[in-house]
């Protein structure tokens, strides 16, 4: 039986620290404990950026399933010209689920037109976003490394095709903290279907402290579950209970070498208590005017659900939430394998007006200049047809757009090839996207690191180029 007075080491580092002893180890332990105490007290305290930031916060509109760039934001005249013909041999070998000969080129299913003063071409699928085209910075040459949904969802969110890495929102929370300690720094709002391919690890904190993982806010009348305490529990009694639990937890934490997961759990109790006073007001959209409800499409059935979440996102960032991510599309979503027109008609109808309303609302309230809005999925779709009227996955070339937050307005960058198959001009890898997003938030992607498994890990691994050409 193990001697309780000689605790078992959980790692070689812990063993060496305990066995080596000495004043250096004692001093280090003291500093670690002081740091841990600070983290327990306020793990989301606002932190200074590495340099002056252009954006203070992010709203990430994730179109889960893979929206078709060649049908929405990337017009290709050659795709129209050669529609119905096989993929030219000059484009080389392409990974598809079927033989190339069985998948002729498919023209865009809706027409494109130049929009606004900038002349950015936007599809008729998106008439409302077309009206705010001059706010957009469209990157038409994005590319990733996996053809499958889960791995691509992970890479777009965490920089890696492997599950278990910290998400972009978690890195931002870790680097900057929160502007409102009564609310989470990173909030996630999934579609009414609830799930995505890859699941919650897409917004997890990975090896970062668990405090920085995304907090899920749901659709419907109770966006945050269990927010209200029982009617039998008075605020005084609840505070006394939490204080007692806090004291016991601190003792328990000290006995476990200030374990990060345990510290995060303790912090969650306190955050939940503080949210009881702040969150009900944040999620109460009845305070908004009828005109605002109409702007987001909340008064119409097709746009009500996504419009409500877009409005909640604005209310959250307005009250200090640092990073809000909205998912459009459940486990299938924009995955238009059989019928692009039918699939994208549904999802464009649900999201087009709310997204345009969000940009207009942010601009009118003076929030857009320091709020970075991101739109995109885990990949795009092939220029070839699948099952006649559908399209397969395409990670080699697709579109992501930014708005606000220090990027150029009414601007397009990069290009795919003549038919929209691969990023050709000024390619932007996912690591480049992440490096640019962090840069806009005042964070050096090479300096934002966390020591893990013997190395200083970071969101962009050993890559990442800031796309300076899109900066305002």
Beta content comes to 5-15%
- Helix/strand structural class: alpha/beta
Poorly predicted runs: 1-9, 20-40
User: Which percent bin holds the helix content?
Assistant: 25-40%
Main β-sheet: number of strands, strand sense, barrel status? 9 strands, mixed
The coarse silhouette is globular
Name of the CATH first level of the largest domain: Alpha Beta
Beginning-to-end CA distance, first to last residue? 66 Å
**Elements, N to C (H/E):** HHEHHEEHEHHEEHHHHEHEEEEEEEEHEE
Query: Domains counted in the coordinates: how many?
Result: 2
Q: Roughly what is the average pLDDT, rounded to an integer?
A: 86
CATH topology of the largest domain: the name is: Alkaline Phosphatase, subunit A
Number of DSSP helical runs:
13
CATH architecture of the largest domain: 3-Layer(aba) Sandwich
Cα-atom Rg, whole angstroms? 24 Å
What is the number of strand segments?
Answer: 17
Tell me what you see in this structure.
This protein has 472 residues and is an alpha/beta fold. The protein folds into two domains: 44-224 and 285-470, Alkaline Phosphatase, subunit A; 226-282, no CATH class. It has 13 helices and 17 strands. Helix 8 (235-255) packs antiparallel against helix 9 (260-282). The radius of gyration is 24 Å and the shape is globular. It starts with 11 loop residues before the first helix and ends in a 14-residue tail after the last strand. Mean pLDDT is 86; it is low at 1-9 and 20-40.
What's a quick, concise take on this entry?
The chain has 472 residues and is of the alpha/beta class. The chain contains 13 helices and 17 strands. The chain has two domains: 44-224 and 285-470, Alkaline Phosphatase, subunit A (3-Layer(aba) Sandwich); 226-282, no CATH class.
